[in-house]
Amino acid sequence: MSAEIVFETGRTVVRRWRRSDLASLLSVYGDAEAMRWVGDGTPISREAAENWLQVTQGNYEARGYGMFAVELRDKPGVIGFCGLVHPGGQQQTELKYAYLRAFWGQGLATEVARAAIAYGAQVHGMRRIIATTAPENEASHRVLLKAGMHAGELTRDDDGEMTQFFVWDLDRE
């Protein structure tokens, strides 16, 4: 396995980001329809994507993990991103993902999320991983539940928006 490959699933290869992934980042995170569920719903700018590449490299160096590129085994090209991160420096490890719309509804997000959780537990000794979604994002709820997480609390953010938490806890396995 190449040093940049982090893990593989039946249909995918999950690897560390490369500088050349900038266009793919912009394709996935620049899609307004897909981004309605991410952050404030604003598509990512080129400057923010370039910064994110640097931040992710720093995460690899500091923690050994971060966001990763997802590619199909039998077809070149990035189809999305998945990873384990600490947004805003939060203590809890959070599972995040986003895919090109052409790959929604095929079970790929669930397949990779399940493998990312296993990777975090087996390689980095993680015992608890969270995920957050908009309460109305039922597609992500299904992905997270199928990946082995359970629904946690529904909280109100500082800006008044609601967030649904999901939790994977090794002690509950």
From TrEMBL:
PANTHER family cross-referenced by the UniProt entry: GNAT FAMILY, PUTATIVE (AFU_ORTHOLOGUE AFUA_3G00765)-RELATED-RELATED, N-ACETYLTRANSFERASE DOMAIN-CONTAINING PROTEIN
N-acetyltransferase domain span: 12-173
GO-annotated molecular function: acyltransferase activity, transferring groups other than amino-acyl groups
UniProt keywords, alphabetically: Transferase
Key word Transferase present: yes
Native organism: Pseudohalioglobus sediminis
Protein name: GNAT family N-acetyltransferase
Pfam families: Acetyltransf_3
SUPFAM superfamilies: Acyl-CoA N-acyltransferases (Nat)
InterPro entries associated with the record: Acyl_CoA_acyltransferase (IPR016181), GNAT_dom (IPR000182), N-acetyltransferase (IPR051531)
Record has Transferase as a keyword: yes
